[in-house]
Amino acid sequence: xxxxxxxxxxxxxxxxxxxxxxxxxxxxxxxxxxxxxxxxxxxxxxxxxxxxxxxxxxxxxxxxxxxxxxxxxxxxxxxxxxxxxxxxxxxxxxxxxxxxxxxxxxxxxxxxxxxxxxxxxxxxxxxxxxxxxxxxxxxxxxxxxxxxxxxxxxxxxxxxxxxxxxxxxxxxxxxxxxxxxxxxxxxxxxxxxxxxxxxxxxxxxxxxxxxxxxxxxxxxxxxxxxxxxxxxxxxxxxxxxxxxxxxxxxxxxxxxxxxxxxxxxx
Length: 266
Known about the structure:
- The protein is an alpha/beta fold.
- It is built from ten helices and twelve strands.
């Protein structure tokens, strides 16, 4: 398993996919809308559920097909309870679901380049995986601290990439002419349950929003669908999340075209 730095190869358009837990189904709806407007990625970089969606899309699967893969699963199917010494849940189930549904095993073998951003918990820094086992790298990027046990890869502990970099626009700007940012943690007030999971998720959401400010500003196209009516854990709403994000994307792109004559920031 290897975490490598970006090389100097240039790409036309990169998609930066944020974290967002179960709301990650929105990435699929946004991508579908972008594709229909002839905005296609030459490279993807994802964090947490953004890395998960990126892996399946880079593997050659269309957005609606990815939705079909996860339709039978509930949140409980993706994780299992763990002794709460370093995390309440183990992400091993999700790792196996990823591995069993992908055509390719290694990041470097994907037909579309994918960078997976995780957090090196031992050193306290972002790591951008471009090589290595896809299922391990993606599940490492999804390991929300406290809720999930850290993922160990080659003796190093990794946790959710969103801890430091939830919207990976800046790394892609170094190698892409244009970057589309899909942010599932916009600046909005959300309802939450006053229980341990609700408090943990809301606190985590504040953290993700805070470290996304700078990256939001430098994106060439920023898409932030309103997902406030959806829960972070109810996967059965996946299709509704997909359709909401899809409609938002088509409407927003049409508005940009009418107002500015282009989808892109000047």
